[in-house]
Amino acid sequence: MKQDYIKILFEQYLEGKTNQEEEKILLDYLADPANGDSEFHAVMDKAWKKQNHQADYTPEANQGLNQIWNKIEERKPKSRSLYPILKYAAAIVVVISAAFGWYAYKKAQEPIQAAIAFLSKTTQKGEKVKLILPDSSIVYLGAGSKLTWPSHFVKGKLRNIRLEGEAFFEVKHDTSSPFIVHSGQMQTRVLGTSFNIYAYPKDGTFSVAVRTGKVKVSENREGKLKQLSLLTPGMKLLYHLKAHDYTVRNERITEVNAWIKNSFAFKDVALPNMFKSLERYYNVHFELKTNKFDHCRFNATFTNKSIGNIMEEIRVMSGKKMKYKIDTANKTITVWGEGCQ
User: Fold this and answer.
1) Residues 241-260: pLDDT tens digits?
2) Tell me: the pLDDT tens digits for 268-327?
3) What is the DSSP string of 80-133?
4) 332 and 248 housed in the same domain
């Protein structure tokens, strides 16, 4: 009868229903060398399962419970000197009981986290927009680009956004919340600075150029992050998608975000790639009738010029060997000729 009473008392203790006097009876019983502890496993297990609405059932928690059972089994009495062992078992009971209460308290205190919505903006060819992010950072989004960002940033957490295309960033300084731009396999991390990212997947080369501050550029391949370079003002990193390699060169500060003011700078750029950029900037389509221009590379800057004026300048740079025709109605430019001089 006493043992049945103790089992009931034990279960009530785990449920937090015992008073001080009952707890003393229970712990005195557990500390008595004449009593074992294994018979209470079923009661312990039952009490644990009753907490399924508030207990932590992660693998770590289950592993911890199993370790407790194992320790009790390992210390099963082999002699009459049982007092310290049973004292240990009683302590385990107190710990587990306290844990049940802690799980309930922890769950009750957890705030309900609303799912963070993500916003995105996609620009068309010939379009560029200015965006203000939730942290007051400013983004100038280039033509034919897409930016994705969370509806709000959490203080002390990473400010992660995603870019496909080109954008110039003026990042609000916050040392506790690094600002990270993900663009394909390239990752750019800053605290507060201004920089330009060019990341059109079809172009084969991504770039990061810094106007102010410092940025860290890394490569993310199959979930493994590898730092490529730290860039300071006037430095530009070019990352080649197929080869997975990169180069770093100097860039004029004034050219980093020149496209915002309709000034387009090309430095040692192949003519077909130049045409790809001009397609986006001017919302036109190029039709190349020959591949003789594939290896033609140019250095050029065009500021506030019409596409007609730009094409004429390129024709002159080619030694007048390139020929073109502009179809204004269809926004198409046909190019042919003998290649470069």
Assistant:
1) 888 899 999 988 988 999 99
2) 888 988 999 999 999 999 999 988 888 889 899 999 999 999 999 999 988 888 999 999
3) S--HHHHHHHHHHHHHHHHHHHHHHHHHHHS--PPPPPEEEEEPPTT--EEEE-
4) no
The last residue of one of the domains, among 208, 230, 258, is: 258
Same domain, 243 and 303: no
Helices (H), the chain: 2-14, 20-30, 41-49, 59-74, 83-109, 271-282, 307-317
Residue with tokens 């320790």: 71
Same domain, 251 and 267: no
User: Which two three-digit tokens encode residue 3?
Assistant: 């043992």
d(CA 323, CA 338): 9
DSSP 19: -
Residue 29's domain spans which residues? 2-109
Same domain, 17 and 138: no
Which candidate, 339, 268, 270, 320, places its Cα nearest to that of 299? Answer: 268
This prediction has a pTM of 0.63
Is there a contact between 35 and 26 (Cβ–Cβ < 8 Å)?
no
- Residue 55: pLDDT over 70: no
Euclidean distance between CA atoms 96 and 14, whole angstroms: 8
Q: What is the CATH number of the domain that holds 185?
A: 2.60.120.1440
Do 200 and 144 contact (CB within 8 A), yes or no?
yes
Q: Which residue has the tokens 């009593």?
A: 35
Helical segments of 175-264, H only: none
DSSP 8-state class, residue 301? E
Whether 248 and 292 share a structural domain? no
The tally of domains found in the chain comes to: 3
Does 143 share its domain with 98?
Answer: no
Q: What is the pLDDT of residues 70-118, one digit of tens each?
A: 544 444 444 444 444 444 454 444 545 444 444 444 455 555 555 678 9
